[in-house]
Amino acid sequence: MLNNLPPRERQIVDMLYERGAMAVSDICDSLPDRLSGSAVRAMLTRLEQKGFVQRESSDRGFLFSPTVTEAKASSTALGQIVRTFFNGSPVSAASALLGMSEKLEDSDLDELEAMIAAARARKGA
Known about the structure:
Strand order of the largest sheet: 1-3-2
Radius of gyration: 19 Å
Helix content: 55-70%
Shape: elongated
Low-confidence stretches: none
Number of helices: 6
Strand content: 5-15%
Distance between the termini: 32 Å
Order of helices and strands: HEHHEEHHH
Largest sheet: 3 strands, antiparallel
Structural class: mainly alpha
């Protein structure tokens, strides 16, 4: 989904997730490389046509925001990673993450255990 976007468009969408709705001038000011307002508007128009952003009228002109929640975008991206690198197996993906356990704090492992317990409880209910 988002990973199929050109880098600059992805950068704009990521910025909108991070900062919330923004006007074109704010986006221009926040980009590391200076782009003209017309270039940013053109990218926003493409992103709107692709269904990634929406615009809303305000006293400052249009404000642009993502159409898909960040959680949904993350879930879709993670699903694609699981399909691509782990043959669609969530267990293989989780195993790979746990293989990095030397980088995990005890509190991280406790949180993962709690999430597994909650998933079991939901499945049993």
